[in-house]
Amino acid sequence: MSTEVSPNASGQSVHTEGTTPAAPEKMSRESVTIISTLLVATFVVILNETIMNVALQRLMVDLQVDAPTVQWLSTGFMLTMAVVIPTTGFILQSLSTRAVFMLAMGLFAGGTALAAVAPGFELLLLARIIQAGGTAIMLPLLMTTILTLVPLARRGAVMGNVSIAISVAPAMGPTVSGLILEHFTWRFMFVFVLPVALAALAIGAKYLTNIGQAEKTRLDFLSVILTVPAFGGLVYGLSQIGGGHGGQAGPGTTAIAALVIGVASLAVFVLRQVRLQKAEAPLLDLRAFNFRMFTVSVLLMVVAMMALFGGVILLPLYLQEVRGLGSLETGLALLPGGLAMGLLGPVIGRLFDKVGPLPLTVSGSVLMVLSLWQFSMLDAGTAVAWIVTLHVGLSFGLALLFTPAFTTGLNPLPPHLYSHGSAIMSTTQQVAGAAGTALLVSIFAVVSAASGLVAGMSAAFLTATVISLAAVVLSAMMRKTPGTGPAHSAH
After folding, report:
1. Residue 7, phi then psi, degrees to nearest 5
2. Of 68, 150, 156, 210, which has the fewest beta carbons less than 10 angstroms from its beta carbon?
3. Which of 82-96, 154-168, 250-264, 364-378 has the highest mean pLDDT?
4. Given a cut of 50, is residue 18 above it in pLDDT?
């Protein structure tokens, strides 16, 4: 870990607002242990999120289910994440750090063990849902802990380490599962993950200490119930539009109904939170949007996630359908980009601490636009080496966006909004990822049916290029935020 922090007696960091300390502050061993444990755990749970995608074909044969049924192993996971993440603001405020970690990793390890021995599809689906419950809690827990422990002048460097978990893990998922499926049965995707999950749980149980104080807050059950149709409806509707109905062109009735219910429920959910804010008891505190840089950063993350997920879905389709590569070769072709994004994260984080967000986000968004535009010009004969180079370029652009967006958005929030700000960012990432996938896969499917696969791919990437232009505008609005430290927060 490259970050140093000195917590005060109450476990909160002491720093001066808007100034960089002359000498680096010493990081206590306890703080290093806490953040390192959470980083490893987050990496493992996010790796698991994409490990399934390559295995769906094998599972259809082994479990004797059809394509729409097996797709529920991914859809069910996404839905659970979308429903649980909005409640993490409340969970993180109500329980101790240690209790939240044990809950998250306990669910994840339990779900992984069940998946490894699942005799049929139904139990495997239940196992994935249990895993998703743990996964949903980990990232907001990690971000909230970093905001509480790390002084403002060092946050960029630590947030850079978070990008390793967020970007390398999903990129490695298909490669890891491709390697496993080459030599073992699908069960080993869970057998190999389980010891790491159990080790993280054991290390956390032994070394993790509580950060800050848990508060007694009232849980609004109506808000919890509303998260299911609101966020679940949106993500399900979008995932179904994105090719969940057997090659049929255009969205189905179920997808449209889910989206309508999702939007209506989301409106009711927002009104409910605004009302509960007056009584200081919202499930998800939307006052984080009162901070301009938080709002700009969330919008920038939405555009970046749409580009990332679109690339993650479309490029494997292109490499397999148009170029005829196998699943392992496809995973290996996409690995350099994922590794580049993650390994650059800490470097970009340290750069952010020195120069602020503006030079990084503008460079990143321009690089993202250029890479996606070049992807739209791929044809059936494009060299694989050029595709890998472009993917590394796109990954570099996204790395220049993610760390500054996270840090700039969360820095100005007062401590009582840390957990809610983290939950809002994680929720919008899920919805944006589903929306990006849905939109681009739908365009690909419709144009491919009429004009062939290469034309479909070109149209989808051209759409992604147009969307990513919004990132250039948002990047130009990014400013260094002075931040609100724990020592001077106002409730």
Report:
1. -75, 150
2. 68
3. 364-378
4. no
* The two three-digit tokens of residue 295, written as one number: 């709002």
Please check whether residue 309 is in contact with residue 235, taking contact to mean a CB–CB distance below 8 angstroms. no
pLDDT at residue 487 is higher than 60: no
Share of the chain above pLDDT 70, in %: 89
Summarize pLDDT for 48-60 with one digit per residue, the tens: 877 877 787 788 8
Distance CA 202, CA 105 (A): 10
Closest CA to 444 of 174, 171, 235, 241: 241
pLDDT of residue 147: 84
Tokens of 365: 């968004």
Distances in Å between the Cα of 13 and the Cα atoms of 142, 162, 197, 353 are: 16, 19, 29, 17
Asked if 314 and 461 count as a contact pair (C-beta separation under 8 A), the reply is yes
- 74 by Cβ neighbours in 10 Å (0-12 / 13-18 / 19+) ranks as middle
Residue 255: what residue type?
Answer: A
Residues 387 and 456 sit within 8 Å (Cβ to Cβ): no
